[in-house]
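question for whoever is on the cluster today: can someone run the full assembly for these? two chains, 297 residues total. i dont have access anymore since they changed the login thing
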Amino acid sequence: MRCKEVTRLVSESLERQLPWRQRIGIYLHFVVCRYCTRYRRHLLYMRRLMRLRREALDQTEPNEQTPRLSPDARERLKDALRRADG
Amino acid sequence: MTVEPSVGPDKLGDPANWVDQYGDDLFRYALQRVRDNDTAEDLVQETFLVALTARDSFSGKSSPRTWLIAILRRKMVDRFRERLREQPFTDLETDDPITDEMFSQRGYWKKTTVASTPSDWGSNPRKVLEHREFQVVLERCLKHMPQRQAEAFVLREVEEMTTPEICDSLAVTETNLFALLHRARMRLRQCLEINWFGVRTGFLGLKRKPR
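^ ran it for u. tokens below:
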């Protein structure tokens, strides 16, 4: 197997269990290819990264850096609600 | 049943105050999952309008915020599905330029590409995420992804829906979803490599912070 195919399968392996032939193929490839070995680590890294990013938003109190609705948007939303509730 | 029918809707409070009470929370939630402020604002508005007509069905068992976020989430998935329906998957059947960019014709990593071969990232995303500059790079990389790839990626890695759930709610085949996710990951990885982990100034023009 070549890197192009291995990277595709590595991504797929995050979604489902691959057939054993493919799993063996990937691991044999990892032995000789540090880029693909790292590629797999990077995908798992990004998965953790996205989870941490979401948790940070859920857990931290809003501060001056956290995005909020602009005053205009706030007015637009209130307007829409008033009209619908009218 | 013993549940007072009026308890839930009362807990939601006066709709006139919803924007001040829940607006920023919903907006932030949406902004982490869609690509721009306008879409996020649209979703918040749709959420409030649905909530208005459905408020009698709110039982009060969950918090108003949780209830509203569940509505927003459904609206977001609807929106993603609509977009997929508008544009059929023809471009998925051909080769995506990202793979040609990364791999030689023979299918091996191109070592000449600007800093895009996988380097050592270490193993502590928590630490990296503490850098304000990295957060900026990450947000810009996510925005840089093609829209449908980004949406599939968000449902999988932010919402943590399973692939059968995503296929079901977006009405796509597993093959198409896997292709979207593969490309999304490859692009995001490359973007982070170039703009943070790699050694050169990235294509977004953001300098890498020395670690």
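summary bc i know u wont read the tokens: Chain B touches chain A through 50 residues (CB under 8 Å). Chain B is about 65% helix and 0% strand.
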